[in-house]
Amino acid sequence: MPGAGTAHCPAGAEAVGMRRWSPAARALTLTGWLTTLVSLPLWLGWQSSMPHGWWIAGVLSLPLLAAGPGLWRAKLYTHGWCSLLSLAYMALGLMEVFATSVGRTPAMVHLLAAVALFMGCVLYPRLHNREQAAHAIHRDQTRPAAREPAES
């Protein structure tokens, strides 16, 4: 059956024409990271009526700042732990969306940014590894076979 098993692990001829989705997932990760990082001070520091909102936003931004260099360099390990970190930011946004009516719109922006960060951090390593495996299979299949040594 042609194309059998291509949904899970593309190989052979299907790998040659395979569309690369990892750059889109990486763009989603970086967009979600930057939007989450920007939305925290704008929401908690500027829009919120919380006392010391700027300090809280600064402290909450520190883990995102620590993840930044690894995400920009496309480190798979950083994507892994940043996906777990994004769950805390999603919980914060979800709590504020349902708990208060004053900051609902900035909280919704923050929640959507954290969801984008989570999805990108989960999808990028998966798609990147799948594409690398397909590339290795294609490279091995197109490599010319080694010649047998001539017998004397």
TrEMBL record:
It comes from the Bacteria. InterPro entries: DUF2069_membrane. The chain crosses the membrane at residues 27-46, 52-72, 84-102, 108-127. The keyword RNA-binding does not apply. It comes from Abyssibacter profundi. The keyword Transmembrane applies. This is DUF2069 domain-containing protein. Pfam families: DUF2069. Keywords: Membrane, Transmembrane, Transmembrane helix.
